[in-house]
Amino acid sequence: MDKPFDLIVRNAHVATAADLFHCDIGVREGRIAALADRLPPSPATREIDAAGRFVTPGGVDSHCHLDQPMQPPVRMADDFVTGTRSAACGGTTTVIPFAAQQRGQRMFDAVADYHRRADGRASVDYAFHLIVSDPTPAVLRQELPALIEKGYTSFKLYMTYEDMKLDDRQVLELLEVAREHGAMVMVHAENTDAIAFLTERLLAQGKTAPRYHGLSRPSPVEREATHRAISLAELIDVPILIVHVSGAEAVEQIRWARGKGLNVHAETCPQYLFLTQDDLALPGFLGARCVCSPPPRDAANQQVIWDGLADGLFTVYSSDHAPYNYDDPAGKHLGAREPAFPDVPNGVPGIETRMPLLFSEGVLADRLTLQQFVALTATNAARLYGLYPRKGTIAVGSDADLVVWNTGRPYTIRNRDLHHAVDYTPYEGRQLQAWPGMTLLRGEVVWDGERFLGREGGGTFLPCARPEMARPRPRAQSWRRWAGLEA
Ligand code: DUC
Ligand code: ZN
Ligand code: ZN
Q: For 461, which DSSP code?
């Protein structure tokens, strides 16, 4: 006889990336042990009645920044305690933030530092991407291969920001390591020299307000770098993911690459669906709250992003939660009052609002199917970063990470109701038709629709497998043979 279930979630309208079905979910030792029409009750088993509500896999937020060390006086508002609490209350049960290498720092030390920040403090499960800002021979030949082996199987590279950017030669070298060792590379694609040039011109004319942030990074800046990243990845013949795609011009490049048969993935974020350049132009300094890179664009670009979510162009939808307070010298005001736009810390908070925004405005507004919602918010990220099928789906053997959705009554976003430590949300006052009524992490309720019930240290570190999707699909390219890149 099997042991009784620890928990049965009854009467669930379950959605996975592939299917919709009605069933009971039996949970044993934190994992889904059975999916069936009607599971037998037992006195030893807790029960939750989903009452026919939608139940989706716990979200996998595969791009967020928590407690990432910054140049003083800038400090992130969320650490692993507050950031993962906020994630849980918004239906996310796995986060993948970044262990960022500072120039001159060993990757091993960056990773150890990040574990010190997260371990024993996170209330949802977590893995790490690496950020490589200093690809020395030791990093490329020893540290990265060793870290990939240990479960850090994805890294981000920047084509802009003085303290992070890699030149094209360095990008190629890093892509080559990813190919050799089976890692997934995420690319921040903006042309750094173009941004510097435009910024200098704007500042020389006294155009320092937050709205000029958008004008310093117009679409061609993103389009050019996206195309270049795709071309460099084609030379090395390795899959890449373009992160935080903001609009039509970058989307065109990705469609072009897909049309050529290249293995290029794309990510977008709530700020490109729900904010525009008008939010950067709010009166006074308020636009600083929406300063992020690439910047939000216009309504036509928002529509292109919706189209890309609906037609499969985008693999993942992540928050890019980058939590800086607004009214704080360690945040958007940067030690002064109202600094010029290049000095405003880049990023918007959104780890808690990511899933409900897409459920309400995507699924309930008939722009996306429920299965697409699941794929974009959970399943694809788990696949892309080597966490599937433990995470990202509702299946026997998977972790019992579940979200039970409340729909059918309006929910107004108010920062005072959110659980991050940031002093604003860019979505204040927006009315939604959905909010997580319950979030379960490995069978434990961490959000009951009103209260956070998780605990510091309740989240565990997840080493990632080498992602299936990072496997190159070798293509016969003569230049690769001539350059000795393959036999
Ligand atoms: N890139 C990110 O991915 N997050 C915040 C800022 C940035 O430029
Ligand atoms: Zn970025
Ligand atoms: Zn980011």
A: B
